[in-house]
Amino acid sequence: MLKKMFNFSKELEVVFKAVVKHxxxxxxxxxxxxxxxxxxxxxxxxxxxxLLIEGSAIDFxxxxxxxxxxxxxxxxxxxxxxFDTAKTLINNTEIDFASTREENYPFSGCLPVVxxxxxxxxxxxxxxxxxxxxxxxxxxxxxxxLNYEIIxxxxxxxxxxxxxxxxxxxxxxxxxxxRILRGLDFILRFGFDFSPDDKKLIEEYLQKPDREGLSLxxxxxxxxxxxxxxxxxxxxxxxxxxxxxxxxxxxxxxxKKDWAQRLYEAAALFExxxxxxxxxxxxxxxKVHKPLSSNASNYEIYNFYKTFSNKDLALHYAxxxxxxxxxxxxxxxxxKPDITGxxxxxxxxxxxxxxxxELSRRFKEKLNLIKRN
Length: 373
Ligand code: ATP
Ligand code: MG
Hints:
Strand order of the largest sheet: 1-10-9-2-3-6-5-4
Helix content: 40-55%
Structural class: alpha+beta
Order of helices and strands: EHEHEHEEEEEHEEHEHHEHHHHHHHHHH
Number of helices: 17
Number of strands: 12
Shape: globular
Bound molecules: adenosine-5'-triphosphate, magnesium ion
Distance between the termini: 64 Å
Radius of gyration: 27 Å
């Protein structure tokens, strides 16, 4: 299948043409892959620009940067040797270069071990999560026009049409159960659904989850992305409970469904990313203790909350239904004393304990005058 055009700006097209020319010159192939091709086939705006090199991405970009230093503004921001990947900024666009690679999972849920880099594209596509994300577009150039040959060994394009998420083999969720959460992300973003076979595989996995080698960091990173948009985060949080996806990391959930609405509100109220709030509710709820008694003075409220981060305030608000945390955040947090020790000394106070007491007395008075509404 030959596709004529991804919809890039003229500027970006210049960059990709240079990439293809350099690939031809170096005898390697360059591809777009994963989410970028999926989004293109779905006709939605492309978010990330990822290039896959059937060879060494680091070697490629280093030589490319030298060769095109006068024609393009190329910054290599970071390289990751063991994965043979590079993050770059070319003409002000972030472009990630990765090498094709083969991976395996010695334990269920662990981070994958890279077996080989620079392997044939089809071997690279094998390690991917869903058929819809296992499509590559090979770049070529003819008559100064970019062309793309779609490589789709798992019929992902068909699954995109059918809105179906299907893994590439039956052990996929065992290898990496965070794929269940990635799937949920695509379901909520694009209206996909797991295929009937996948539903069965997920159910089977959740009945006997293997947490021995699970990378909790990977779970948290996946949840961070899933919870990045507040409204979607609320839905995802509810679905994790409803579908028992929490079994990926724990037997019984320590977080509750009736927190969901307030967690959602808390992102805006406490000016904190929804990902931090929803992940906090799942993994840090044990940090949330009893609220203050309802007749606490403003001064007591201030002292109770003054070491809390915005996220911790948000969690108190959402988990304990504690409106005092919001009152503190909105009205007390930024209150400063009107007077300093030096001012008091000028007024005749002697340095020492008494001065400290007078300062806190005045600050307490100021705080206690503030009304809740
Ligand atoms: P998004 O639009 O959210 O960025 P994406 O599919 O590009 O979607 P990324 O996290 O950017 O998601 O990953 C890029 C590609 O890497 C995916 O399309 C998929 O092919 C592969 N991938 C990412 N995470 C996994 C995983 N846990 N298991 C297998 N393949 C993965
Ligand atoms: Mg992506």
